[in-house]
Inverse folding.
């Protein structure tokens, strides 16, 4: 249990480390404390905090830096959070509208906007389309003649307007009229069903009565549905985790670097997936890199509702331990709520950001 003096000193060390990045001296802390203390007294308190595991001293003559334990205590004790700047809120609202009915494009733009405004890596786990309700399927012949590989565009449209498409090569020759007939039969059979239900129905039909489902229909629809199983991960910003050099996520990567990035993506996806089961904002301080190299990082994440209420996704900002949590936590919360309101149709006009500080939402 920290005394009030220890708490005040620790809070100032963390705040100064967030703002300046380097070790914090006792004189800097003394200047900011409300209590009139000597530098020697502050150094004594800092020594106590080192013994308790809240601070560390990189070098003998250097100041002190907070440990992961200090950051966890700091975030859990936050009472006030910074307001969302008006221009920041408006930029995110415009990003929400930029993709129209294309969910992936909208999330890509929101992710890019968040990464640019925070200098963090923004990762988004899009909602799974398994719960989307099918409106219609369409097959469009693109090319190919007899004795050639035919290329067919498969379109799947959900009731919320989301579109999935794949180009599927087939050896058989078909004219557009035959493809239209296949579509009509599939739409009669599956329209109004969730994609997960359609996939299960196809599996049963192929197993029990394969002759009743034409090989082409099965291949085309199964190829498209396979593409909806994994929502993947949208990444914008600088990848500085795993001890990797600060490299744009879309830059060419060597084989070793690429494997490290894939490992980190998988683990961060697990963190984001965990947020789908919780309400509010969650934070993970001291996430260690899989490679064992480089500094630990922090993740602040929250879930949001997709175009259909049963579809949920999550977004998170990944950065160093010394994140400006008082700004990042409400920003992630605001963005998740913004996406939910946008797809529910309740986001109208450009809403101004709140004025003044607000209470921190409870930890999930």
């Amino acid at each position: 249990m920290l005394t009030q003096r220890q708490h005040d000193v620790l809070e100032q060390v963390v705040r100064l480390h967030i703002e300046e990045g380097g070790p914090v001296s006792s004189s800097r802390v003394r200047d900011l404390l409300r209590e009139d203390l000597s530098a020697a007294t502050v150094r004594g308190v800092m020594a106590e905090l080192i013994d308790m595991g809240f601070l560390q001293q990189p070098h003998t003559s250097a100041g002190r830096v907070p440990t992961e334990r200090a950051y966890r205590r700091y975030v859990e004790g936050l009472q006030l959070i910074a307001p969302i700047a008006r221009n920041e809120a408006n930029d995110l609202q415009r990003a929400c509208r930029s993709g129209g009915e294309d969910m992936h494009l909208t999330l890509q733009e929101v992710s890019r906007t968040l990464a640019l405004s925070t200098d963090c890596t923004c990762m988004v786990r899009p909602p799974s389309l398994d719960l989307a309700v099918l409106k219609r399927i369409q097959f469009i012949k693109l090319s190919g003649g007899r004795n050639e590989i035919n290329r067919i565009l498969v379109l799947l449209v959900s009731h919320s307007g989301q579109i999935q498409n794949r180009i599927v090569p087939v050896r058989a020759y078909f004219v557009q009229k035959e493809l239209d007939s296949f579509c009509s039969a599939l739409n009669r059979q599956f329209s109004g069903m969730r994609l997960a239900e359609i996939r299960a129905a196809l599996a049963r039909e192929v197993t029990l009565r394969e002759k009743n489902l034409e090989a082409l229909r099965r291949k085309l629809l199964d190829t498209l549905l396979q593409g909806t199983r994994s929502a993947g991960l949208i990444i914008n910003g600088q990848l500085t985790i795993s001890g990797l050099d600060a490299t744009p996520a879309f830059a060419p990567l060597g084989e070793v670097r690429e494997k490290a990035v894939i490992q980190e993506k998988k683990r961060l996806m697990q963190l984001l997936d965990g947020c789908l089961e919780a309400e509010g904002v969650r934070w993970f301080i001291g996430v260690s890199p899989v490679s064992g190299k480089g500094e630990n990082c922090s993740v602040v994440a929250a879930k949001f509702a997709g175009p259909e209420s049963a579809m949920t996704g999550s977004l998170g900002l990944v950065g160093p331990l010394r994140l400006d949590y008082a700004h990042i936590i409400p920003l992630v919360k605001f963005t998740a709520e913004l996406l939910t309101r946008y797809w529910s149709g309740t986001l109208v006009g450009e809403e101004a950001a709140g004025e003044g500080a607000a209470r921190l939402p409870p930890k999930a």
Q: What stands out?
A: Confidence is low (pLDDT under 50) at residues 208-213, 240-254, 354-364. The first strand starts at residue 55 and ends at 56. The two ends are 23 Å apart (CA to CA). The CA atoms of residues 242 and 261 lie 8 Å apart.
